[in-house]
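Hi there, hope your week has been kind to you so far. For a while now I've been wondering how a particular protein folds. I'm sending you its amino acid sequence along with the backbone structure tokens. Could you read through the record and tell me how the tokens relate to the sequence? Take your time with it, there's no hurry, and the full record follows here.
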Amino acid sequence: MCEVFNERFECFLVRNPRAEGHIAITSKKHFKDMMEIDDETCSKIFGSAKEVMNIVKKVYSSESVYLCTMCDGPMNYFHLQLIPRYSFEKRGSKNFVKQRFEYKEEKAKIK
């Protein structure tokens, strides 16, 4: 994975995922939303997200991976969510509002 995850970003599997393999990426430096991010950080976080999306697609055998930017809830902070899309799922806008479930650790896939 990208070296920048060690110095600039955190990448982790979401505890209450919308799909198996749902990952969040955030900057170690706090940004309220995307408009606050400097151009270099913005470029690197999206470049890194693309790299992780390809890994997730391969490891979880998903059809694709959605990327969405998030900055909501009680603690506003910018982060990206990578949500795998599987061939058996229905298409349409309901994918982002589907029920969450408990994360089950799969060490082989994490490696």
